[in-house]
Write a structure and sequence with these properties.
Layout (H helix, E strand, L loop, with lengths): L4 E6 L3 H12 L4 E5 L13 E3 L3 H11 L3 H8 E7 L9 E6 L1 H12 L5 E5 L2 E7 L2 E7 L4 E9 L8 E4 L2 E4 L11 H7 L5 E12 L9 E3 L22 E5 L2 H8 L23 H7 L7 E6 L6 E8 L4 H8 L10 E3 L2 E7 L17 E3 L9 H19 L13 H12 L23 H12 L4 H23 L1 E2 L1 H10 L9 E2 H5 L6 H7 L1 H4 L11 H13 L1 H18 L17 H10 L4 H5 L6 H11 L2
Parallel strand pairs: 1-2, 1-9, 2-6, 9-19
Antiparallel strand pairs: 3-5, 4-5, 7-8, 8-9, 10-11, 10-18, 12-16, 12-17, 12-18, 13-14, 14-15, 15-16, 20-21
Length: about 625
Amino acid sequence: MFSDYDIIVVGGGHAGCEAAASAARMGSKVLLITMNLGTIAQMSCNPAMGGIAKGQIVREIDALGGFTGIVTDETMIQFRMLNRSKGPAMWSPRAQSDRILFAQKWRSILETIDGLDFWQDSVTSLIVEDQLVKGVRTGYGLEFFSNSVIITSGTFLNGSIHIGKKSFSGGRLAEAPSNGFTQHLNELGIDSDRLKTGTPVRVDGRTIDFSKLIEQPGDDDAGKFSFLNTTPLKNQKSCWLAYTDTEVHNILRKGFDESPMFTGRIQGSGPRYCPSIEDKIDRFADKDKHQLFIEPEGWNSIEYYVNGFSSSLPLQIQYEALRKIPGFEKSKILKPGYAIEYDYFPPTQLDFTLESKVVENLYFAGQVNGTTGYEEAACQGLMAGINAHLKSNNKDPFILKRSEAYIGVLIDDLITKGTKEPYRMFTSRAEFRILLRQDNADFRLTPYGYELGLAGKERYERYLQKEKLVNEIIETISSHKVLPVEINDYLSENSSSPVSIKTSTKQVLLRPQVNLKGLYEHVKTFKDLFVDIESSELFDEAMISAEILIKYKGYLDREKEMAEKISRMENTKLREDFDYSILKAISFEGREKLQKIKPRTIGQASRISGINPSDISVLLIHLGA
């Protein structure tokens, strides 16, 4: 009745979707097993994609040939480029999505992929022989066999939901958890732990007085995530800003004695950078207000997401406090805020490919690795799907360096340092963030995606065309000079000192008050130089990249030089079977961590928490390096 598969993906969230899509498109026969086919790619928390550093990850997924960026573009209701006032390394795209359309679009894409099958069921255990995974067993008593299995179970493993004193099992609100699977993996030698996350109330938008809120519209010229020619966003819905106050905080404090977090009923660590409202007012008692983002859930939905008001306090307390926020005096709650506690598997048990070090051909991706966020989950799923396919076909693994992608930073952080709280990506985690910009993800990664067979011919040709345009623009700027009469009015308007002689356009562009778009629009002789290429749909993108490459050349060259130095350490390999306990010159803690993580290179060893420079010197001496 049932076929054997190359790869089985367990879970239909953001990690599972990218894993199944990538492996199937590369040629594997894939089965996606999920507990509910109706909730594939559901946005369990806020209906948004991208943000600080997360937007860079989405663009990287897209550049490699993944679908998260395309789905976001086709279903977004608002777009904003964050951090425009800062340097380009900090620019981060963010989109508000239509929650229902997002899931529908993902489902429709998956259903068009050859070699991808679906099955609605729970997975209760793995089929394992001599620590080699052979398939899965399901709740219906079925067995499916495969070469590899990718676990992307999200928050469903032994999920427990908390609202005040009330606790009940659940993977999401109104959805059953998966119980027993963690214990099975423990028996196979895979360690697990508990984490906690939460979500705020959803409110009926018809009961919100938006006149008391601060409107936050999208960008006038809405951007997008995908490097492909996806549908541009013409109309947008606004988000809104609101604020708590001391009265709201005092009401929330009344529920602290019933809070599962403060009474100790929740044992798992919560996200440090996205805390619940009760955690915020407890930790930051000196703050008399906190900002809230009021986000629409879709084009035709009355539902609004109160971002920043995540809570596990009793529903009555949530309701009472919410109604004291200006604009929410008559608000009605559609869904309560709640905390969810779930099992995860410390990621130091994984290799760079996201394959388990304990059970061969078993991969983990997403929140089961201790991360938080759709973007972090999706990129792990993509990488796990790619590497499961490559290994099944006896090909070399695909591993991204920290200097190549935020995806490389994320995976290296997880498997080298581990995490005791939900991991969230920030630009500050990347030491080469000026190299890892959102505008150049295609330059960095599309050649890889094309070689893997994920980035199609159209995508690759667009990348080549954009690269050609960027080079042409830089060459034109470098050779052009501008007269004072052509430029001084523009310089004066932008508080930049005038020029007195014919001046290099490149030198003018290096001024902080000057941008390439302004030069293009105000200097006719300069604009005339681009008459042959300005009609290209990629011209605006190429102009942005060219300007960054010119303005930040010194910084870029320094980061590239540093990346090359560190790369030499990454090329110094360590044996997987090396016994670190014999190196008595390294502290006991250091030897214990090295033995547990089994770093592949000196570079990875240097990033392990607790390993100091003298320990690295001992390793280098032992290697004769």
